[in-house]
Amino acid sequence: MRNYTIPIAASLMLISGITLATAAQNAPSVLTIEKEAGKPIATFTVEELGKAFPSKTLETVTPWTNGEKRRYRGAPLKDILAKYGSADAATVTGVALDGFEAKLETKEIKAFDPIVATEVDCVDADRLAATCTKDQEFRVLTDADRGPFYVVWPYEQLPKSTNTDENYRWIWFLAALRP
Description:
The protein is of the alpha+beta class. Helices cover 24% and strands 30% of the residues. The chain has a 5-stranded mixed sheet with strand order 2-1-10-5-6. Strands 3, 4, 7, 8 and 9 form a 5-stranded antiparallel sheet that branches. It starts with a helix and ends with a strand.
């Protein structure tokens, strides 16, 4: 009996506008920096991103942490954009693994200095679950944390809005950045 899984999956991706090349580039453990859609100029694993850019810690609540502050660590988004010539673009598009896209204004990136988080602080629950050791300060973001790459903003500094659509800027499962 013939296996139709691959041809069916490929057909569904083509129907939805995702090419096989794009799907392969968007591996969950790789962040792609693109010049334009489908034209990568750099790729990073979590470890490579940590070595390529200085790390910054951001302590904040998020719209999903019920008022609990957490510390996230990762590369400043403005540093990534500056290295690849995108700092002067009016907007930068962040693309998630599920195809979600958010246009981020570079003036907001410069003003609020979000990070591409790859780590979150260890809390007591992590130590009980043995995902962090007793002395470990941070751990790599998991799927449950919206990682391995997650655009995190200083929530308390952002303009207040009653519109939950403003949460678009928090890009979970970030796969690509492009001007």
